[in-house]
């Protein structure tokens, strides 16, 4: 079972402690006063006005919130500031909100599968296409992200300068390299770009020489995915829509997800915790001398078990207090490996040494998945 959305946001929120609790409470109170005065650019919708608004605005973002939710109070002034700025945008970008805690609006929350607050969704084409908002939560970031969301799903790269300005070293970027900007491959690529645009940035080009990394002598058409981890560039030639989505999904998670205070890792952590696959988590103190040897052994293990249905995480004890609480772990157990299988069953090995990691993982696989020697030959080879 996947971990609930509420817990995931808590796990991540606690990884980055921005300011002491007292200061935060004060800040929220001030923000509350600020938003209560003056005309709001954010549309307030309810069960009666919702469908009409969706039909009227070709591009609308809706925040489902609850009055008591702290994160909602924090985002409110940022959301309002973004709404003011974006109301002048052409084409118009409408920001709206719904009090999903109000009994009257509960059916809306159910219909749109709202599991935690705040949840922001993007409604396009009269609600025919609904996507989760996955952008930043402060005004500048919201504005930038949403401006991108109303433009084309994929931008053409016509020069190395285009590539430099579009491809961010710290983010995943997906480029289709074509011989012509038409045909089945191009159409399928654009369909996937439209579908996944709230998760990733897309571009297309006729010339691989414009692109920064990887082999420029390519046999077109080709999809090239740039990423800030592991092998940095990965290609695929399968333009089937489902295959393309699968390729993007599989390539866009690091072999080992890092749980530390770096916010760049949050999208990957989110995917990790949302996944219903089995999870292996190694928690230790990143500041200790043995960290590097743990890391190299663990990455080796992730490579060795890459075809297994298991995802890997390495977590710093300094950033993962919430995870310790959630999984019922104690600090004096580190370094520890915890496996949570697909049925939420847990397997724990405390005070693990680097050279025990691989054999312990094998033990886990053998005792849990091998009903007979024949279906686990692969694993027995190592024992
Ligand atoms: C992690 O290790 C550093 C260096 O040895 C130490 O100062 C710090 O207290 C440790 N953190 C925890 C939570 O044990």
From TrEMBL:
Keywords: Disulfide bond, Endoplasmic reticulum, Isomerase, Redox-active center, Repeat, Signal. InterPro entries: PDI_thioredoxin-like_dom, Thioredoxin_CS, Thioredoxin_domain. CDD domains: PDI_a_family, PDI_b'_family, PDI_b_family. GO terms for molecular function: protein disulfide isomerase activity. One of its GO terms (biological process) is protein folding. PROSITE patterns: THIOREDOXIN_1 (PS00194), THIOREDOXIN_2 (PS51352). It is found in: Endoplasmic reticulum lumen. Its EC number is 5.3.4.1. It catalyses: Catalyzes the rearrangement of -S-S- bonds in proteins. Its main location: endoplasmic reticulum. Belongs to the protein disulfide isomerase family. NCBIfam families: pdi_dom. This is protein disulfide-isomerase. It comes from Zizania palustris.
